[in-house]
């Protein structure tokens, strides 16, 4: 991030363009993620059929691919969409939900990784395991602290030549050389399903407006979540009211709020 391109500047640019984001996400996340993107200021479209996914990616601002509820038909749609996005040099974001859990997921994830994602966004367990380490998780929820994933993220980013974002109590973003930690959010966030998946879609929205700067775009999306999450927790009684306030706060925060309340620490 530069002084002129703060997260707040990127928020204003993102809202100004309201980018069309093709989200191939899971059944759990589809509705949540669409509401998150609309509240944040982007335009989501959940388009995953093989017959149309590549064509759609040819005019979407960015593509996001999430393997949460995988099936062979969805994998075909994902590959077609990545082909379409790559052909027109649009960024695409991979969310490797519980990729370590089964052979089916491991194979699909390896195939998608080989197609060269612009950004990988996962929780600490997912990133540790994706870099070849052993995580403690068995399913979609992380069982490792982000600090344990930081070296894994750097190495994965360097090997894959992409941006890697690890989320959790404190987030970490790296391109293999540069790295930032982003503080904020709330411990209520992992108690609401699909917020990580929705964040992946929001990374796509920011990447759509700054395809040449995916590091800054990813960090801005994470700051947007961190600030909205902290403000929502201050207004909530538990996970249910948090989910409602979170949508409100994603919409309520403006550029000045992100730049005043966002806590980004360069490493
Ligand atoms: N303990 C926590 N404190 C603050 N924010 C959190 C915490 N756990 C997760 N988050 C936030 O929740 C969002 C989703 O991250 P995470 O739960 O790691 O993803 P996933 O749902 O894929 O496991 C991110 O914005 C992250 O910063
Ligand atoms: C519960 C569940 N099962 C398959 S995908 C999914 C949603 C996971 O969402 P997130 O990774 O954002 O917690
Ligand atoms: Mg996840």
Automatic annotation (TrEMBL):
Main EC class the enzyme belongs to: transferase
Catalysed conversion reaction: 5-(2-hydroxyethyl)-4-methylthiazole + ATP = 4-methyl-5-(2-phosphooxyethyl)-thiazole + ADP + H(+)
Keywords, alphabetical: ATP-binding, Kinase, Magnesium, Metal-binding, Nucleotide-binding, Thiamine biosynthesis, Transferase
GO terms classed as biological process: thiamine biosynthetic process; thiamine diphosphate biosynthetic process
This protein's pathway: Cofactor biosynthesis; thiamine diphosphate biosynthesis; 4-methyl-5-(2-phosphoethyl)-thiazole from 5-(2-hydroxyethyl)-4-methylthiazole: step 1/1
Positions annotated to bind substrate: 46, 194
Binding of ATP, residues: 121, 167
Any Pfam family matching the protein: HK
Cofactor(s) it depends on: Mg(2+)
EC nos: 2.7.1.50
GO molecular function, one term: hydroxyethylthiazole kinase activity
Transmembrane residue ranges: none
Protein family: Belongs to the Thz kinase family.
Role description: Catalyzes the phosphorylation of the hydroxyl group of 4-methyl-5-beta-hydroxyethylthiazole (THZ).
HAMAP family: Thz_kinase
Protein name listed in UniProt: Hydroxyethylthiazole kinase
Primary gene name: thiM
């Amino acid at each position: 991030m530069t002084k002129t391109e703060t997260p707040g500047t990127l928020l204003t640019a993102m809202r100004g363009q309201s980018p069309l984001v093709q989200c191939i996400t899971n059944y759990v996340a589809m509705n949540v993620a669409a509401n998150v993107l609309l509240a944040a200021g982007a335009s989501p479209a959940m388009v995953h059929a093989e017959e149309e996914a590549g064509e759609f990616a040819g005019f979407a601002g960015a593509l996001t691919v999430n393997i949460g509820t995988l099936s062979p038909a969805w994998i075909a749609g994902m590959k077609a969409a990545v082909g379409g996005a790559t052909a027109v040099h649009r960024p695409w974001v991979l969310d490797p939900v519980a990729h370590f859990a089964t052979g089916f997921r491991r194979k699909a994830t390896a195939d998608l990784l080989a197609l060269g994602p612009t950004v990988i966004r996962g929780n600490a367990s997912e990133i540790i395991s994706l870099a070849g380490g052993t995580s403690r998780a068995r399913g979609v929820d992380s069982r490792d602290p982000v600090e344990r994933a930081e070296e894994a993220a750097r190495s994965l980013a360097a090997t894959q030549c992409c941006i890697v974002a690890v989320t959790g109590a404190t987030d970490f973003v790296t391109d293999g050389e540069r790295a930032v930690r982003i503080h904020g959010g709330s411990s209520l966030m992992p108690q609401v399903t699909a917020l990580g998946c929705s964040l992946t879609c929001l990374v796509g929205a920011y990447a759509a407006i700054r395809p040449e700067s995916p590091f800054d775009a990813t960090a801005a999306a994470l700051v947007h979540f961190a600030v909205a999450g902290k403000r929502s927790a201050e207004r909530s009684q538990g996970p249910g009211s948090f989910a409602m306030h979170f949508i409100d706060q994603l919409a309520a925060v403006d550029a000045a709020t992100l730049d005043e309340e966002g806590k980004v620490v360069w490493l």
